[in-house]
Amino acid sequence: MSRFAVRHGRLGDPGPGDQGAAPGAGLTIGVEEEFLLLDPATGATVPRASRVLDGHRPLPDGAALHRELRATQVEAASGICLDAQGLRTQLVRGRHLLHEAAVLHDTVIAAAGTSVLSGPATLGDNDGRFGRIDDLYRGMVADYEACGCHVHVGVPDRETAVAVVNHLRPWLPALLALSVNSPFDHGRDTGYGSWRIVQQSRFPGAGVPPFFPDLAAYDDEVDRLVDCGALVDASMSFWLARPSKRLPTIEFRVADTALTVDEALLQALLGRALVRRALADLDRGVAAPRLSGQVAAAALWTAARDGLEGSGVHPGLAQQMPAERVVVNLLEHVRPALEEAGDLDFVREQVRRLLSEGTGAQRQRRAVAAGLPALITMLTGHA
Q1: At 18, is the pLDDT very low, low, confident or very high (cuts 50, 70, 90)?
Q2: Do 343 and 271 touch, CB atoms closer than 8 A?
Q3: CA-to-CA distance for 158 and 175, rounded, in angstroms?
Q4: Which domains does the chain have, with CATH numbers?
């Protein structure tokens, strides 16, 4: 659920000198990063979130640290940012403060989508909304320590948000392929790049969101899922891109927690560029592609399994192709938006690095080949 407490959106109406501005100019961005708390000696998760979050040093305006569903997790949320450098500064600060707080309690924060080794399950120690989630989903969340990188992008209003999400749907698997960083689970290599997405697929309504003709249809569907007992409340859904219930923002929930700040920033800038492109297409009257739900699910599953290795699926074309080519198509799609924002060079360089050095999942596997201590050092060395 979004924790941004003020209105996101465009930065105001165009002035006389701004009539040629791009439709998506001035969109705000923010990021929430979830992390695991590990015992630095064993690599197992430890339930010390409350102690770690108690009394941390001040953050930048609008930024915050939070608990997550399990006491083995913590979250750093940026404030509302206008540019890449401002967001990067806040991401670095949030990670640094969590690291400082964690080491005071003999633990470390790990930038991974799932844990290598889990400690005891912590079901039953929650109250409030987290307690209702425990009651509803039971054993599905008893050891659910999945961590994501959630990107928030401002739009003019919630009606527009629904229309934009329709345009985002074909590109969500490509964002996942770039972000896969959860290959391990309970001491085993799952064979997947993102086991977190596999875990999420157990929940009702997970994955690429359906097409919705308007805001009323979207809200009606969420309300029906609540009435059916599948969701705790109308602020919850498991779709990987969704409009906020309260604010004019879109939340991308597709990426695993990023191994580095720059990989988190890459997700934020690509997400904003996709929203920029969607707004431009809407202004031109370009219809959102109507995807096969099953092909979209296949594309997401393939991205979760293989990341940038081997073949991917382009859901818009309903074709299998090299994963690298799917990503190239994504960059071609958003290139004008990235250029408008001044983000193109950074995004190109980060994608080039991932293709040459490997995703987080690939780098985790290389590290664990040198032994568990090497993996722990890598996961905890990017604060």
Answers
A1: very low
A2: no
A3: 23
A4: 27-374 (3.30.590.20)
